[in-house]
Amino acid sequence: MRIDHILPHDLLRHRAVRVLVIGAGGTGSAILLGLPYLDQAMRVWGHRHGLEVTLMDGDLVSETNCVRQPFSFSDVGQNKATVLINRINLFWATRWSAIPTHFHARSFERNQDRCPDLVIGCVDTRAARKAIADSFSCALGQVCYWLDLGNNAASGQYILGQPLNARNRRKAERLRAVSELYPEVIDTIAGEDPLPSCSAVEALDRQEPFINQTLAASALAMLAQLFRYGRLGHHGGFFNAKTGQMSALPVDPELWSKTRRRSRKSAVQSAVRRTVATDQAYVGTRGRLRA
To answer: pLDDT tens digits, the chain, 291 residues: what are they?
Structure first.
């Protein structure tokens, strides 16, 4: 049964909404460059404090990044987060901040009084997603929302959830996070997908252009609906660049249950396949040793 998600009444009170963007690659940079427009819109809608944004990424700009990401050759060798935040602060007269290091589960243990309200994860590995998910039980225990964006060569998704932590208690209407609906995204045992190529041509072959921007724009439009009207009928979406189709993920507890059951079944099947492959490899190794 579909329901509406209601924005927590205390989120927009007396201060800016604190946003932590993790990852400054193709999707993270697209999200970041759209956030000033959301900040301006919120102020027009009466939320006078707007957004307070922090961007976190330890990577340096490479020449390949200049093909699909908003960097120029003069940025090569500099930290991605620092470059983008400096650019935004100069243009928009904001006072947003950059953290030029990689995120890990305990990154904010010494600064819990500045815990973000919204974490936007724009990472491309299972290990990085798992670190974000693990952080909600410790350093980021007061986070209200986790917006995860991810993609492969020709498709992608964005999912807004309320991680189960000190702030979000167990209740039927709590938005399920990406790691609950699709636990394979944090399954580090399954291995990682191929990392981005160092070749510009190969990088474009591996991923269709504009997927990052499409997902970012759709996710930002969803956040705008939430902050403007205080409610949502969907909390994510799936995009296929080859067909041009975008399908929404409704706020529907029954659908969440079905999705989790399918994911658990798929996880069991994957574990069996990995076990069989490991056993076969072991038998083959013993056979070679005996030979």
So the answer is: 899 999 998 898 889 999 999 999 999 999 999 999 999 999 999 999 999 999 999 999 999 999 999 999 999 999 999 999 999 999 999 999 999 999 998 888 877 678 999 999 999 999 999 999 999 988 899 999 999 999 988 999 999 999 999 899 888 899 999 999 999 999 988 776 665 554 455 555 667 889 999 999 999 999 999 999 999 999 999 999 999 999 999 999 999 999 988 877 765 555 455 455 545 554 455 555 555
Distance of CA 157 to the CA centre of its chain: 9
Domain residue ranges in the chain:
5-251
Rounded to whole angstroms, the Cα distance separating 102 from 92 reads: 26
Q: Output DSSP code: residue 195.
A: P
Report the SS3 class of residue 158. Answer: strand
Pairwise CA distance, residues 276 & 55, whole Å: 42
Helical residues (DSSP H) of 141-193, grouped into ranges: 178-181
Residue 157: which residues within 8 A CB-CB, separation 6 or more? 149, 150, 151, 215, 236, 237, 238, 239, 249
The H or E element spanning position 86 is helix 80-92
Contact 156, 149 (CB under 8 A): yes
What CATH class does 5-251 carry?
Answer: alpha beta
Beta bridge partners of 250: 234
